[in-house]
Every structure is written in structure tokens, then in C-alpha cells.
Design goal:
It comes from Lignipirellula cremea. The protein has 229 residues and is of the alpha/beta class. The chain folds into 2 domains: 18-144, Ribonuclease H-like superfamily/Ribonuclease H (Nucleotidyltransferase, domain 5, 2-Layer Sandwich); 155-223. It is built from 7 helices and 8 strands, in the order H-E-E-E-H-E-H-E-H-H-H-E-E-E-H. It has a 5-stranded mixed beta sheet with strand order 3-2-1-4-5, sandwiched between helices. It has a 3-stranded antiparallel beta sheet with strand order 6-7-8, covered by helices on one side. The longest helix has 19 residues, at 205-223. The chain is elongated. The model has no long low-confidence stretch (mean pLDDT 89).
């Protein structure tokens, strides 16, 4: 059973107050909302996440936040409430529809959004968020790139060799490969909710990447998501 995490906080003291949000004007508008893991510097112990709410099809950024722990349902509720109450563009309003990535942690928020008249669809892809997040990372990488080691021509082909892994680490989660105390040699793929795939049979880097590529290719196929070649 998947741990749903902390419970949704509503009303006094919370950002998401249904009575307030329901009184806002509603626009025939679709939003995408999600949290994405940020690259972790070597000396940083915890993974940080960036949350974004964007409108379709224009990609206007309505709300943005960075947190220093795995996002909870209350982090998402706060992010959406800020997008409605004090959006970065336009005046306060609620959308008619919100697209969220499938995640059991969001379950208690779905009914709260329905209560304020917002339709929620759970999807496998959020193209506007993907684009904005990639641009955000590009700006971060530009700031960090001074003195960075450039891959060789052969090393640069790794994303073509392992397209499923490449797509996974760009926007769906991260992988772990190597010897772990008390577990031995492990290959894992994790998303923002936790473990997705684990294999303790590989004994080399090549075997591990092959196993992860096959497993993640199946995951994308099951989710109906096309792998970029």
C-alpha cells in the first residue's frame, strides 16, 4: 500500500480556504501544476523541489515556489491557492480545469478542488510544465556551467543509447546505481512519490543501465507516454 503522506489542511490557518476560493470569479482556463526535483549539489543532503502553476496554452507562470523536502499535498494546495489568490499575472481567479500528474499523495486535494467548482484531470504528461522546468534548469545550468567538465563525443551519446533513462531523469525522477550498505549492488528508479523499480541482479554499470532502460521503457509505455528519441 502506498503511504498517502500527511493529511490536507483546510480552513483557518491554511492557504487553501474553500469558501474564499469558491467566491472568486472563474475563467474558462486550464492550468498545469506540478513539483519537480532540482539537481542536488554535492554538499546538499536533501533534494529540493520547484513547484509551478502555468496556464494553457500560453504558458503564463501563475505561481512558483521552492521547497526543501519532498512535496506534500499541503505544498500543492498552497501553490494552487497562491495561483488563484495572487497570481504572478492577471488578477485573482480560479480556473475551470487543472491538470495534475498522477500521484496518490494528491488524493485528498482532488475533492477539495471539485468542491470549489474546478475539474481535475490526472495525466501522464504536463507539456507546459515540462517546457518551463527545462528552461528553469537551463538558466540554473548556465549559472553553474563555468568550469564544468564537458563530455567527450562518445560520452555525449549516452542519451541516445538510453533514451528512457534520459527522459526519466529530465522530468520524472532519478536513478541510483551502486553498492549500498546491507543491500549490495542495487539499481533503482525513483519518482517524486518513491520507489518505482529496483533490481539487485546487475553487478556492473552496464548491466544496471540496461535493466533500468528496459524497466523505464515499460513504465513509459504503460503510462502512454512517448519516449523522445
Amino acid at each position: 500500500m502506498v503511504d498517502p503522506g500527511e493529511q490536507l489542511k483546510l480552513g483557518k490557518g491554511a492557504a487553501f480556504v474553500k469558501s474564499q476560493l469558491k467566491r472568486m470569479r472563474q475563467k474558462d482556463e486550464t492550468w498545469e501544476a506540478d513539483f519537480r526535483a532540482l539537481p542536488k549539489p554535492i554538499m546538499q543532503t536533501a533534494t529540493h523541489y520547484v513547484g509551478m502553476v502555468l496556464s494553457q496554452p500560453d504558458g503564463f507562470l501563475l505561481a512558483h515556489s521552492e521547497i526543501s523536502q519532498s512535496p506534500t499535498v499541503n505544498d500543492l494546495a498552497t501553490l494552487l491557492a497562491h495561483a488563484m489568490k495572487r497570481p504572478l499575472v492577471e488578477g485573482q481567479h480560479r480556473p475551470s480545469r487543472i491538470l495534475l500528474r498522477k500521484n496518490p499523495k494528491w488524493k485528498s486535494l482532488l475533492s477539495a478542488l471539485t468542491d470549489i467548482g474546478v475539474q481535475v484531470d490526472l495525466v501522464g504528461e504536463l507539456p507546459i510544465v515540462d517546457l518551463e522546468f527545462n528552461e528553469f534548469l537551463a538558466h540554473m545550468n548556465e549559472a553553474r556551467s563555468a568550469g564544468a567538465i564537458k563530455p567527450s563525443k562518445e560520452q555525449g551519446k549516452v542519451e541516445k543509447t538510453f533514451p528512457a533513462i534520459a527522459q526519466w531523469v529530465r522530468g520524472y525522477g532519478h536513478i541510483e546505481i551502486g553498492d549500498q550498505e546491507d543491500f549490495g549492488f542495487i539499481a533503482r528508479a525513483l519518482d517524486y512519490g518513491g520507489l518505482v523499480f529496483e533490481d539487485d541482479k546487475p553487478r556492473t554499470l552496464a548491466e544496471s543501465t540496461a535493466a533500468l532502460e528496459a524497466a523505464l521503457a515499460r513504465w513509459f509505455e504503460n503510462e502512454g507516454i512517448e519516449i523522445e528519441k
